[in-house]
Amino acid sequence: MLRYIGRRIGNMAVTMVFIVILGFMIIELPPGSYLEFEIERLRMAGGNVYQDQIEALKKTYGVDDPIPIKFWKWVSGFARGDFGFSFEYMKPVKEIIWARLGYTMVISVLTLLFSWTVAILIGVYSATHRYTLPDYAITVIQFFGLSVPAFLLALVLMVIAQQVFGMEVVGLFSDQYRDAPWSVVKFIDFLKHVWIPIVVIGLNGTAWVSRVMRGNLLDVLGMQYVQTARSKGLAERKVIWKHAVRNALHPLVMVLGTSLPAIVSGEVIVATVLNLPTSGPIYFRALIQQDMYLAGTFLVFLAIILLIGNLLADILLAWLDPRIQFE
Q1: For the whole model, what pTM was predicted?
Q2: Cα 4 off chain centre by
Q3: Is the per-residue pLDDT at 38 higher than 70?
Q4: Is the pLDDT of residue 260 over 70?
Q5: pLDDT at residue 27 is higher than 80
Q6: Which of 310, 133, 208 is nearest to 216 (CA)?
Q7: Which of 45, 81, 216, 310 could in theory staple to 248 by disulfide, Cβ–Cβ 3.0 to 4.6 A?
Q8: DSSP structure class, residue 327
Q9: Is the pLDDT reported for residue 231 higher than 80?
Q10: Comparing C-alpha atoms, which of 264, 270, 272, 256 is closest to residue 302?
Q11: What is the CA radius of gyration of the chain?
């Protein structure tokens, strides 16, 4: 297993090199220079930009540096945790990212756990009770989850939570706890708010995973080794969960690595509607405003999350099927 993990980490390191190069190319891709956008922003704000200010900005942003020097500054800055300077927010990119990345990862991981746990349980129940009334009801709900836009579901849940239960659901905290230090009361308030984005963001994934799980399990239940296990007198629960479900998970685990970055990048609209302090809206605004150091850094972080997710998926798949370690 350790040798297998070592090979995967080596492949991940090589991929990271290409990702960093691609991220830098995206930063350098827009026409013009960052200095031109910054000067235009200052002029639109009503200020006069003098030549000495322009020269200072050139020195700050390294506009006149050759491409190899720019690339080295960016890569070496990454190693030190310096990701450049945001024009839109006039502060280092790392301050913007660290302020929002924590909430983003918490919501994304909780959404992934919620989505996959509920989906696997529903998929197993639906496959073992096929063509029954609950199975038909689950199918209808699954198609509903696949078709309803996330922002519409967020608005509906907001109205229900506010009008029926009298809950304040905008943001992740109530007004009195938003800037307060962490405490047990603030954590409870956080739990009261975080369930809506988890349900909204995870509903589509839950519907899709449960459908795939149902189909995979139905295929596995018809295989000969499952029939053999039943003929030996094993309990039905043991046949399903120990033998059938474990093999039915293989196709799902293969796409598990892409689920986490998909959740992170897919929560933009929901975070905007619910006013969540996550990275999605900031990333979207950085693309609109051509704040490319901020956008490029977010892109690299999403790629890193994807690589880590794929590594964890490979390890889990090797644990489910030890034959993979020897391929």
Answers
A1: 0.74
A2: 26
A3: no
A4: no
A5: no
A6: 208
A7: 216
A8: -
A9: yes
A10: 264
A11: 24
Tokens 């970055």 sit on residue: 261
Domains of the chain: 2-93 (no CATH), 99-322 (1.10.3720.10)
Burial status of residue 101 (CB atoms within 10 A of its CB: 0-12, 13-18, 19 or more):
middle
| Residue at 163: amino acid letter | Q
Per-residue pLDDT, averaged over 225-247, amounts to 82
> For residue 29, what are the CA distances in angstroms to 40, 64, 78, 290, 292?
19, 16, 19, 10, 9
Two tokens, residue 302: 């999403």
CB 100 within 8 A of CB 278: yes
Residues 6+ apart with CB under 8 A from 141: 207
Q: Token pair of 139, please?
A: 């199918």
Burial state string for 232-261 with b = 16 or more CB within 10 A and e = fewer than 16: eeeeeeebbeebbbebbbeebbeebbebbb
> What's the average model confidence in pLDDT over 106-128?
87
Q: What tens digit of pLDDT does each residue of 267-276 get?
A: 677 777 777 7
CA distances from 306 to 116, 257, 310 (A): 17, 6, 6
What is residue 182's DSSP assignment? P
Averaged pLDDT for residues 223-245: 82
Q: Which amino acid is at 156?
A: V
Distance CA(298)–CA(282), nearest Å, equals 9
Tell me how far apart the alpha carbons of residues 234 and 37 are, in angstroms, rounded to a whole number: 70
CA angle 300, 306, 311 (to 5 degrees): 130
Among 10, 2, 5, 1, residue whose Cα is nearest residue 312: 5
**161 neighbors 174 (Cβ within 8 angstroms):** no
What is the predicted pLDDT for the residue at 37? 67
Q: What is the DSSP letter of 243?
A: I
Q: Given this model, what pLDDT does residue 286 score?
A: 78
Q: Which structure tokens are listed for 73? A: 């500054």
The b/e string for 2-19 (b: 16+ C-beta within 10 A; e otherwise) is eebeeebeeebeeeeeeb
User: How many C-alpha atoms does 91 have within 13 Å on its Cβ side?
Assistant: 7
Give the C-alpha separation, 274 to 162, whole Å: 13
